């Protein structure tokens, strides 16, 4: 395995398999559907989808009708930014055409695909150049889909969200996400998250839902904590 990883095209069949690795494994679906259980969580990698499996995570896999994936085995530490507890991801738009190009190049035996493909795939997935990559002018930052992130966060109030959780959802490091939140939203990441939680609580409360139920749905530790937060919003 090279310094940034080893690319391969792999076909999966109906016979189930199971193993773990001491490196990251990144799968991008090209055809068919691959069903996995990664560290106890169900994941389906369909065409255009992907999965980042962390070192040591045991994964069972099976494709009842057959599937083909572009697979990268890598020890590069930056893949840790993409390996979250949710595992299943939608790769960034930039990564998908690159994956198809690399798959074709591997099939045709083009050596540069193996030489440069792993680093290019990591750069595309993270949405920004690796720190060791020489810079020759300004780079465009991949836009964060804030409405999609808001929708995702609204489904997670049953647990304590962190900046790392938000960053992983948009394939950035915690520090990158915190900086982008200040630039795009004019506030810190946790302040943005608290604002989203409070906005949903206000919406539910305005619909006539009981305070206790609103607190339960939006993750406030008690009805009184929600009431206090609503009061602070009206009386800053």
Domain count: the total is 2
| Mean pLDDT across all amino acids | 81
Indicate the CATH architecture of the largest domain: Sandwich
Beta content comes to 15-25%
Low confidence ranges: 128-139
Brief description of this entry?
With 236 residues, the chain is α+β, with helices and mostly antiparallel strands. It has helices at 95-107, 111-126, 146-154, 163-169, 174-185, 189-206, 211-218, 223-234; strands at 6-12, 17-19, 24-32, 34-38, 41-45, 50-53, 59-62, 67-74, 88-89.
Question: What do these coordinates show?
Answer:
This protein is of the alpha+beta class and 236 residues long. The chain folds into 2 domains: 6-126, Jelly Rolls (Sandwich), CATH 2.60.120; 146-234, Arc Repressor Mutant, subunit A. The chain has 8 helices and 9 strands. The strands form 2 sheets. The chain has a 5-stranded antiparallel β-sheet with strand order 1-8-3-6-9. The longest helix is centred in the C-terminal third of the chain and has 18 residues, at 189-206.
């Amino acid at each position: 395995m090279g310094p940034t990883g080893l690319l391969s095209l792999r076909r999966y069949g109906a016979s189930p398999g199971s193993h773990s690795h001491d490196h990251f494994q990144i799968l991008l679906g090209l055809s068919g559907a691959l069903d996995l259980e990664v560290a106890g969580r169900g994941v389906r990698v369909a065409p255009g989808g992907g999965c980042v499996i962390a070192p040591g995570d045991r994964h069972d896999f099976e494709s009842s009708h057959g599937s083909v994936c572009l697979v990268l085995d890598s020890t590069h530490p930056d893949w840790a930014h993409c390996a979250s507890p949710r595992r299943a991801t939608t790769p960034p738009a930039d990564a998908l055409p690159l994956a198809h190009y690399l798959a074709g190049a591997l099939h045709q035996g083009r050596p540069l695909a193996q030489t440069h493909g792993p680093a290019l795939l990591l750069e595309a997935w993270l949405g920004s150049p690796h720190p060791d990559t020489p810079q020759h002018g300004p780079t465009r930052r991949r836009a964060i889909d804030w409405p999609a992130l808001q929708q995702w966060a609204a489904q997670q109030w049953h647990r304590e969200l962190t900046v790392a959780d938000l960053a992983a959802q948009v394939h950035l490091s915690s520090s990158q996400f915190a900086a982008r939140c200040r630039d795009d939203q004019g506030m810190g990441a946790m302040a943005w998250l608290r604002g989203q939680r409070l906005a949903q609580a206000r919406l539910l409360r305005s619909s006539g839902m009981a305070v206790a139920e609103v607190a339960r749905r939006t993750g406030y530790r008690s009805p009184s904590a929600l009431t206090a937060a609503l009061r602070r919003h009206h009386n800053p």
